[in-house]
Amino acid sequence: MAPKKKEKNLKRSNIITLKLTDIELAVLNEAADVTGLSHSEYLRKLLLEKQINHQIEVVADMNDLRKLVSEYGKIGSNLNQIAKHFNSGGSQSRAIENEIHQCITDLFLLRKEVLKLAGGMNGNRKTH
Q: What is the pLDDT of residue 66?
């Protein structure tokens, strides 16, 4: 991030020192990153305004989301049929076992696709 131009009539000449634990520093880093502010700007805003509002913009491809929702529905239907089979006294068979494994595999693949669409585990957030 490029440094912001300081106002000419506002000179900050007072320095304070603050000691933080590793966890406190991680919280500060995350909060400042999410808002797009430096540590100093973030703490100054927090001190003066008592609250910092930030927005996270989520952008998604609706066609991809519809496809994923449809896939989740199909997998859920398969799992319901398997549960009905066992709840009605059905015996375990190799075919049922294979179907369960296939549903689990499909769920993991779908999870991977959702994470890819969401920008991975970190979310790749766009902030304002």
A: 81
